[in-house]
Amino acid sequence: MSETSTPPSIGDMLLATVPMAKTLNLVFEEAGAERAVVRLPDQPDYHNHVGGPHAGAMFTLAESASGAIVLAAFGDQLSRAVPLAVSAEIGYKKLAMGPVTATAELGRPVAEVVAELDAGGRPEFPVHVAITREDGAVTGEMTVVWTLRPNK
Prior knowledge:
6-stranded antiparallel β-sheet; alpha+beta; DUF4442; Thiol Ester Dehydrase, Chain A; 4 helices
């Protein structure tokens, strides 16, 4: 009987290629073309001065969730374009304590972005991310604008 290997998940690929995500022990719970969910466990080494996750750790969490959705949505375009973050804006809304979860949603239809790429453009598209505590309270919101830069 031969063993079949399953291809690596998007989370596995990100952890292998983005050292910061691995350093923070991010857990990729879901990674699809319309939604990605990534969790930052509660880790004292990454706490701020009030005992919650450091702002930089939450930024990395949210940006990683946005990257997961980008890879899920546009992974089939990697032979002709590279995804790059263009800008990111984050707002911290409430005190985050304990583990936090980032949920990312794509801000433009995949087909629309690919059509722009097909037409020779360099499409930009937002990914909106909500960061929540275990009780469901939104502690932060981030928008990352991504582009697909065509290969030359």
